[in-house]
Protein backbone atom coordinates (compact mmCIF):
# COMPACT_ATOMS: atom_id res chain seq x y z
CA UNK A 1 0.00 0.00 0.00
CA UNK A 2 1.42 3.37 -0.99
CA UNK A 3 2.13 6.25 1.36
CA UNK A 4 2.13 4.06 4.46
CA UNK A 5 4.66 6.38 6.08
CA UNK A 6 2.48 9.42 5.50
CA UNK A 7 -0.58 7.54 6.73
CA UNK A 8 1.18 6.46 9.90
CA UNK A 9 2.29 10.05 10.49
CA UNK A 10 -1.23 11.39 10.12
CA UNK A 11 -2.63 8.77 12.48
CA UNK A 12 0.11 9.47 14.98
CA UNK A 13 -0.91 13.11 14.96
CA UNK A 14 -4.60 12.37 15.36
CA UNK A 15 -5.12 9.12 17.24
CA UNK A 16 -1.99 8.51 19.28
CA UNK A 17 -2.84 10.73 22.27
CA UNK A 18 -6.42 9.44 22.57
CA UNK A 19 -6.05 6.65 25.13
CA UNK A 20 -4.31 9.01 27.52
CA UNK A 21 -7.15 11.54 27.12
CA UNK A 22 -4.78 14.40 27.87
CA UNK A 23 -6.80 17.57 28.36
CA UNK A 24 -3.64 19.67 28.07
CA UNK A 25 -2.79 18.41 24.56
CA UNK A 26 -3.64 21.17 22.10
CA UNK A 27 -3.65 18.65 19.24
CA UNK A 28 -6.78 16.98 20.63
CA UNK A 29 -10.36 18.22 20.55
CA UNK A 30 -10.70 17.59 24.29
CA UNK A 31 -14.48 17.28 24.72
CA UNK A 32 -14.59 18.09 28.42
CA UNK A 33 -18.32 17.32 28.70
CA UNK A 34 -18.25 14.04 26.77
CA UNK A 35 -18.51 10.73 28.59
CA UNK A 36 -18.65 7.44 26.69
CA UNK A 37 -18.98 5.20 29.74
CA UNK A 38 -22.36 3.74 30.68
CA UNK A 39 -22.04 0.86 33.12
CA UNK A 40 -25.82 0.32 33.00
CA UNK A 41 -25.64 -0.65 29.31
CA UNK A 42 -25.65 -4.38 28.42
CA UNK A 43 -22.19 -5.96 28.18
CA UNK A 44 -20.59 -5.76 24.74
CA UNK A 45 -20.27 -9.07 22.92
CA UNK A 46 -19.07 -10.18 19.50
CA UNK A 47 -22.72 -10.29 18.46
CA UNK A 48 -23.60 -6.71 19.47
CA UNK A 49 -20.31 -4.85 19.21
CA UNK A 50 -21.12 -3.52 15.73
CA UNK A 51 -24.23 -1.86 17.17
CA UNK A 52 -22.39 -0.76 20.33
CA UNK A 53 -20.27 1.81 18.54
CA UNK A 54 -20.34 4.35 21.38
CA UNK A 55 -17.97 1.98 23.19
CA UNK A 56 -15.60 1.31 20.31
CA UNK A 57 -12.07 1.90 21.65
CA UNK A 58 -9.48 4.05 19.92
CA UNK A 59 -6.99 1.21 19.69
CA UNK A 60 -7.07 -2.57 19.64
CA UNK A 61 -4.50 -5.35 19.88
CA UNK A 62 -4.23 -8.72 18.20
CA UNK A 63 -4.92 -11.65 20.51
CA UNK A 64 -3.56 -14.12 17.96
CA UNK A 65 -1.09 -13.91 15.10
CA UNK A 66 -2.75 -13.00 11.82
CA UNK A 67 -1.72 -13.35 8.21
CA UNK A 68 -3.03 -10.63 5.93
CA UNK A 69 -4.17 -11.12 2.34
CA UNK A 70 -0.78 -9.86 1.19
CA UNK A 71 0.96 -12.62 3.13
CA UNK A 72 2.26 -10.37 5.90
CA UNK A 73 2.20 -12.03 9.34
CA UNK A 74 1.21 -9.75 12.20
CA UNK A 75 2.32 -10.89 15.62
CA UNK A 76 0.09 -11.48 18.63
CA UNK A 77 -0.04 -8.36 20.82
CA UNK A 78 0.47 -5.90 17.97
CA UNK A 79 -1.52 -2.72 18.66
CA UNK A 80 -3.22 -0.70 15.96
CA UNK A 81 -5.64 2.19 15.56
CA UNK A 82 -9.27 1.17 15.06
CA UNK A 83 -10.59 3.02 12.04
CA UNK A 84 -14.01 1.37 12.14
CA UNK A 85 -15.86 -1.91 12.34
CA UNK A 86 -17.30 -3.41 9.18
CA UNK A 87 -20.73 -5.04 9.01
CA UNK A 88 -19.23 -8.46 8.23
CA UNK A 89 -17.57 -8.83 11.62
CA UNK A 90 -14.13 -7.48 10.78
CA UNK A 91 -12.32 -4.41 12.00
CA UNK A 92 -10.44 -1.95 9.78
CA UNK A 93 -7.23 -1.32 11.71
CA UNK A 94 -4.17 0.75 10.94
CA UNK A 95 -1.00 -0.96 12.12
CA UNK A 96 1.35 1.83 11.07
CA UNK A 97 4.25 0.49 9.06
CA UNK A 98 2.49 -2.88 8.85
CA UNK A 99 -0.36 -1.37 6.85
CA UNK A 100 -4.09 -0.79 6.93
CA UNK A 101 -5.67 -4.22 7.36
CA UNK A 102 -9.09 -5.77 8.00
CA UNK A 103 -8.95 -8.31 10.81
CA UNK A 104 -11.71 -10.57 12.19
CA UNK A 105 -12.74 -9.08 15.54
CA UNK A 106 -12.42 -12.54 17.10
CA UNK A 107 -8.65 -12.20 16.68
CA UNK A 108 -8.55 -8.88 18.56
CA UNK A 109 -9.32 -7.57 22.03
CA UNK A 110 -11.86 -5.12 20.60
CA UNK A 111 -14.75 -6.53 22.64
CA UNK A 112 -12.73 -6.53 25.87
CA UNK A 113 -11.64 -2.93 25.33
CA UNK A 114 -15.18 -1.91 24.42
CA UNK A 115 -16.37 -3.26 27.75
CA UNK A 116 -13.62 -1.30 29.49
CA UNK A 117 -14.90 1.84 27.78
CA UNK A 118 -18.45 0.89 28.83
CA UNK A 119 -17.48 0.56 32.49
CA UNK A 120 -15.23 3.63 32.45
CA UNK A 121 -11.96 1.81 33.13
CA UNK A 122 -10.66 2.81 29.69
CA UNK A 123 -11.09 6.56 29.07
CA UNK A 124 -12.69 7.73 25.85
CA UNK A 125 -12.98 11.47 25.41
CA UNK A 126 -14.91 11.75 22.17
CA UNK A 127 -16.44 9.77 19.28
CA UNK A 128 -13.71 8.03 17.28
CA UNK A 129 -14.18 9.77 13.94
CA UNK A 130 -14.82 13.20 15.45
CA UNK A 131 -11.77 12.83 17.66
CA UNK A 132 -9.59 11.74 14.75
CA UNK A 133 -10.67 14.57 12.44
CA UNK A 134 -11.74 17.20 14.95
CA UNK A 135 -9.52 20.22 14.95
CA UNK A 136 -7.59 19.01 11.92
CA UNK A 137 -10.31 20.68 9.87
CA UNK A 138 -10.24 24.31 8.74
CA UNK A 139 -13.09 26.77 8.25
CA UNK A 140 -13.65 28.08 4.72
CA UNK A 141 -13.90 31.74 5.69
CA UNK A 142 -12.29 33.22 2.59
CA UNK A 143 -9.27 34.51 4.51
CA UNK A 144 -6.50 32.76 6.40
CA UNK A 145 -8.19 29.47 7.39
CA UNK A 146 -8.91 28.97 11.08
CA UNK A 147 -9.51 25.69 12.94
CA UNK A 148 -13.09 24.47 12.83
CA UNK A 149 -15.20 24.70 15.98
CA UNK A 150 -14.85 21.20 17.35
CA UNK A 151 -17.36 21.41 20.19
CA UNK A 152 -20.15 22.08 17.70
CA UNK A 153 -19.50 18.65 16.19
CA UNK A 154 -20.98 16.95 19.26
CA UNK A 155 -24.43 18.07 18.10
CA UNK A 156 -24.07 16.13 14.84
CA UNK A 157 -25.34 12.64 14.22
CA UNK A 158 -23.84 12.02 10.80
CA UNK A 159 -20.76 13.19 8.95
CA UNK A 160 -20.44 13.45 5.19
CA UNK A 161 -16.85 13.14 3.99
CA UNK A 162 -16.35 14.42 0.44
CA UNK A 163 -13.20 13.51 -1.48
CA UNK A 164 -12.76 15.78 -4.51
CA UNK A 165 -10.29 18.11 -6.21
CA UNK A 166 -11.36 21.78 -5.89
CA UNK A 167 -9.45 22.49 -9.11
CA UNK A 168 -11.44 20.00 -11.20
CA UNK A 169 -13.85 21.35 -13.81
CA UNK A 170 -16.61 19.21 -12.31
CA UNK A 171 -16.11 20.52 -8.78
CA UNK A 172 -18.62 23.42 -8.99
CA UNK A 173 -21.31 20.96 -10.08
CA UNK A 174 -20.50 18.65 -7.18
CA UNK A 175 -20.51 21.56 -4.72
CA UNK A 176 -23.86 22.81 -6.04
CA UNK A 177 -25.39 19.34 -5.70
CA UNK A 178 -24.26 19.03 -2.09
CA UNK A 179 -25.03 22.62 -1.12
CA UNK A 180 -28.60 21.84 0.08
CA UNK A 181 -27.10 19.48 2.68
CA UNK A 182 -24.93 22.18 4.21
CA UNK A 183 -27.52 23.18 6.77
CA UNK A 184 -29.20 19.82 7.24
CA UNK A 185 -30.08 19.27 10.91
CA UNK A 186 -27.67 16.85 12.54
CA UNK A 187 -25.30 16.61 9.55
CA UNK A 188 -21.78 17.98 9.15
CA UNK A 189 -19.91 17.94 5.83
CA UNK A 190 -16.12 17.76 5.54
CA UNK A 191 -14.09 18.15 2.36
CA UNK A 192 -10.87 16.21 1.88
CA UNK A 193 -9.25 18.08 -1.04
CA UNK A 194 -7.59 15.85 -3.61
CA UNK A 195 -4.57 16.63 -5.75
CA UNK A 196 -2.39 18.19 -3.07
CA UNK A 197 0.11 21.00 -3.40
CA UNK A 198 -2.45 23.77 -3.04
CA UNK A 199 -2.25 26.25 -0.13
CA UNK A 200 -5.07 25.88 2.38
CA UNK A 201 -6.02 29.52 1.91
CA UNK A 202 -6.74 28.88 -1.78
CA UNK A 203 -9.02 25.95 -0.94
CA UNK A 204 -10.91 28.13 1.50
CA UNK A 205 -11.26 30.90 -1.06
CA UNK A 206 -12.51 28.44 -3.68
CA UNK A 207 -15.19 27.11 -1.34
CA UNK A 208 -16.32 30.60 -0.37
CA UNK A 209 -16.44 31.60 -4.04
CA UNK A 210 -18.81 28.68 -4.69
CA UNK A 211 -20.89 29.40 -1.59
CA UNK A 212 -20.13 25.93 -0.21
CA UNK A 213 -18.28 26.87 2.96
CA UNK A 214 -17.75 23.44 4.50
CA UNK A 215 -14.82 22.64 6.82
CA UNK A 216 -11.91 21.08 4.92
CA UNK A 217 -8.79 19.07 5.76
CA UNK A 218 -5.35 20.60 5.81
CA UNK A 219 -3.39 19.90 2.64
CA UNK A 220 -0.73 17.69 4.24
CA UNK A 221 -3.34 15.51 5.95
CA UNK A 222 -5.93 15.14 3.22
CA UNK A 223 -4.28 12.34 1.27
CA UNK A 224 -3.49 10.16 4.32
CA UNK A 225 -7.05 10.65 5.58
CA UNK A 226 -8.37 9.65 2.16
CA UNK A 227 -6.39 6.40 2.17
CA UNK A 228 -7.51 5.68 5.72
CA UNK A 229 -11.23 6.24 5.18
CA UNK A 230 -11.90 5.08 1.62
CA UNK A 231 -11.79 1.46 0.53
CA UNK A 232 -9.27 0.79 -2.21
CA UNK A 233 -12.10 0.06 -4.63
CA UNK A 234 -13.66 3.52 -4.16
CA UNK A 235 -11.74 6.22 -6.01
CA UNK A 236 -12.25 9.99 -5.72
CA UNK A 237 -14.33 11.90 -6.38
CA UNK A 238 -16.35 10.09 -3.77
CA UNK A 239 -18.58 10.56 -0.75
CA UNK A 240 -18.68 8.68 2.54
CA UNK A 241 -21.51 9.11 5.03
CA UNK A 242 -20.68 7.85 8.49
CA UNK A 243 -21.62 8.08 12.14
CA UNK A 244 -19.53 10.05 14.68
CA UNK A 245 -17.76 6.78 15.50
CA UNK A 246 -16.96 6.05 11.85
CA UNK A 247 -19.56 3.38 11.03
CA UNK A 248 -20.38 3.61 7.33
CA UNK A 249 -23.92 4.56 6.37
CA UNK A 250 -23.34 5.19 2.66
CA UNK A 251 -20.31 5.13 0.38
CA UNK A 252 -20.02 5.76 -3.33
CA UNK A 253 -17.87 7.18 -6.05
CA UNK A 254 -19.38 10.47 -7.23
CA UNK A 255 -21.56 10.38 -10.36
CA UNK A 256 -24.58 12.58 -11.18
CA UNK A 257 -27.03 10.11 -9.63
CA UNK A 258 -25.11 9.95 -6.35
CA UNK A 259 -26.75 13.05 -4.87
CA UNK A 260 -30.22 11.49 -4.91
CA UNK A 261 -29.05 8.19 -3.39
CA UNK A 262 -27.05 10.07 -0.76
CA UNK A 263 -30.02 12.22 0.22
CA UNK A 264 -32.16 9.10 0.67
CA UNK A 265 -29.47 7.58 2.90
CA UNK A 266 -29.38 10.74 5.00
CA UNK A 267 -33.18 10.71 5.28
CA UNK A 268 -33.04 7.12 6.51
CA UNK A 269 -30.49 8.01 9.19
CA UNK A 270 -31.68 11.43 10.32
CA UNK A 271 -35.31 11.29 9.25
CA UNK A 272 -36.97 13.85 7.03
CA UNK A 273 -36.81 16.84 9.34
CA UNK A 274 -36.44 14.72 12.48
CA UNK A 275 -34.14 16.04 15.21
CA UNK A 276 -32.06 13.78 17.42
CA UNK A 277 -30.48 14.59 20.74
CA UNK A 278 -26.75 15.48 20.65
CA UNK A 279 -24.24 12.67 21.16
CA UNK A 280 -22.74 14.34 24.20
CA UNK A 281 -24.41 14.15 27.66
What does the main sheet amount to? 4 strands, antiparallel
CATH class of the largest domain: Alpha Beta
What is the first-to-last residue Cα distance? 40 Å
Tally of separate domains? 2
CATH topology of the largest domain: Glutaredoxin
Number of discrete helical segments: 7
- Cα shape: globular
Helix content: 10-25%
Q: CATH architecture of the largest domain, please? A: 3-Layer(aba) Sandwich
Structural class: alpha+beta
CATH superfamily placement of the largest domain: Glutaredoxin
For the largest sheet, list the strands in their spatial order.
1-4-5-6
SSE topology string: HEEEEEEHHEEEHEHEHEEH
Low-confidence stretches: 1-29, 273-281
Mean pLDDT across the residues is: 85
